[in-house]
Amino acid sequence: MVYSVHNEYFDMKFIKTSILFIVIVLCSSSSVLQLGIQPKIITQIFFPDPDIEIPTPGFSKKKGYTSITELLSFLKNKSIENPNQLSISFIGKSQGGIEIPAIRLVGKNPVKNPIRVWLQGGLHGNEMGSVEGLLFLIHELLNNSDLLDEFEMMIIPVANPDGYKKENRYAKNGMDLNRDHTIISAPETKYLKSTFNLFDPELALDFHEYRPFRRDFVNFGNFGVTSMYDVMFLHTSNPNVPKKLRELIEDSFITPCQADLDKQGYTHHNYFSTEKHLGTIRIREGSISARSSSTSYALSNCVSSLIEIRGVGLGRTSFKRRVACVKEVGMSFLKSAVQSKHNMRKVLVHLTDTNRRVVYSSSYLTENRIMNFIDLEEKSVQGFEFEVRDLSEQRNIKTRSFPLAYLLTKELIPLIKPKFDVLGIKYKLVSSETLDPNRIYSYNITKYLQDGIPEFRVRRQRVTSELRLLEKEQPFELLYVPTSQVRGAHLFELFEPEATSSYVAFDVIHTGLNKKLKYYRYHAY
Ligand SMILES: [Zn+2]
User: Fold this and answer.
1) 405 alpha carbon – ligand 1 mean position (Å)
2) 430 CA → ligand 1 middle, Å
3) pLDDT single digits (tens) 348-399
4) Angle at CA 204, nearest 5°, toward 202 and 210?
5) How far apart are CA 422 and CA 6, in angstroms?
6) What is the DSSP letter of 34?
7) What is the pTM of this model?
8) For residue 239, how far is its CA from the centre of ligand 1 (angstroms)?
């Protein structure tokens, strides 16, 4: 008995010590902070869940997210209930061997020549709301048959299934799939872009989530700040995307969507991210990179935006709100597409304007601005001054004439032709004899610098080039790639060597100082 009492006493002491230990660990990890964990009061004040039922698999469980098996069975049920409207196919296997599903969605009584729409989510595997949001949108569209009748849709709900399975941003080989739209090195990118080009959408939306608590944000206010926007629009400012298309995206899609979000009480802003430079934090707003979906799809002659929902690192916090935002944005863009159908098709048809010039280099507006954040101590929106580099205001634009075609010599063909096939770029093999020799110009590299540190195994080449008339040679075979074609705008980003996403910049085509590139421009005169 005595022995047993002593034992109980020992147990109590052990339990007390253990509890104290656990409390200390919890306290210190929550003061290590809020990186990811959102104080409840902030959720209550700024990001309460809407009072709606969302009948997708993720909301029938308390923990975790919709698994790929649950996602497929949800969609299979939808296809059984709506056999003529929803069908599931697979576009290829991820690096980890998971089939990537594609959902085709059409109306019961489709209109003639419906608007072709591409929707994708889960390209970054840790942006769970984007996947769940597309399931919710599919559900809503099936219940909204008048609207659905206007469309033919291709939906890729989980573009990076390996990442999604692990709640990890990257593909299995560590690659960021939203930086692979030009080089196309991951199999997932190849399947996505080939399917995209076959389907040939007029409107494309790529849903993502962004991280509202960033390490740098602890330096603002007394207790740190967090991003305040439910939705950020990342639409392209790339100057090689025709101006009329950029204006159409902004005026006929983004602006009405902002008004729709206002009505629902959701906050929004143009996309920005923070970056640390020489110890200070500055803001980068907008995007022009052809390596990312938003610009790549716009260069493919398509109304396009990437949508960032406030979500990464929040776990299940505000999950309903995030998923509802995906649905609201999707619905808004679809309604705008119906409303501006006529004008949209006029803009998309008249893209090839050979009078315009090709932009090979540009910079951006830099100015100090007050940016609003939620101050975690004050629990209110506060303005903070930042240096903002605004990519949506392109400056110092440097241009060259609009070439009739780019001409690739034989040695580049095996390297580049497969990328053209994926991007939907047309070409033909010709002999140089069939071309006017006085209109073929070569690029001579006059300045050359290669990065010392590789970024995803690539050491970037930064070059300046000069055009010179090609010296006469014996007849030779060339790949003739006309710029006046549906996906032609890609070519300026890929082949003007100074362009930030070009094949020269990313060392796909290696060069050096005073060297000539192995491809040419074919000028109109
Ligand atoms: Zn993302």
Assistant:
1) 34
2) 41
3) 987 666 668 999 999 999 999 999 999 999 999 999 999 999 999 888 899 9
4) 165
5) 75
6) -
7) 0.92
8) 23
- Dist. CA 206 → ligand 1 center (Å): 9
Reply yes or no on whether the pLDDT at 8 is more than 80.
no
- Give me the residue label for tokens 């099936």: 142
| pLDDT at residue number 37 | 79
Please tell me the distance between residue 109's alpha carbon and the centre of ligand 1 in angstroms: 35
Query: Residue 210 Cα, ligand 1 centroid: separation in angstroms?
Result: 6
CA of 432 to the centre of ligand 1 (A): 44
Angstrom distances, CA of residue 443 to CA of 167, 239, 472, 478: 44, 22, 15, 16
CB atoms within 10 A of CB 18: 10
Residue 510, amino acid: H
Q: Are 468 and 492 in contact (CB under 8 A)?
A: no
In the numeric block, which tokens belong to residue 162? 């390996």
Q: Where are the domains of the chain?
A: 2-32, 68-351, 400-522
248, two tokens: 């159409």
Contacts of 485 (CB under 8 A, 6+ apart): 352, 425, 426
Name the burial class of residue 210, with classes exposed (0-12), middle (13-18) and buried (19+) by CB atoms within 10 angstroms of its CB.
Answer: buried
Ligand 1: centre distance to CA 233 (Å): 12
Closest CA to 122 of 142, 108, 151, 101: 101
How remote is the CA of residue 411 from the centroid of ligand 1, in Å? 36
Structurally, at CATH architecture level, domain 68-351 sits in: 3-Layer(aba) Sandwich (3.40)
Helix spans in 438-496 (H): 490-495
Q: How far is the CA of 138 from the centre of ligand 1 (A)?
A: 21
* Strand (E) or helix (H) holding 75: helix 68-81
Would you put residue 113 in left (φ > 0), alpha (ψ -120 to 50) or beta? left
In the sheet that 268-270 helps form, which strands lie side by side, from edge to edge?
86-93, 99-106, 151-156, 115-121, 203-210, 303-310, 231-234, 268-270
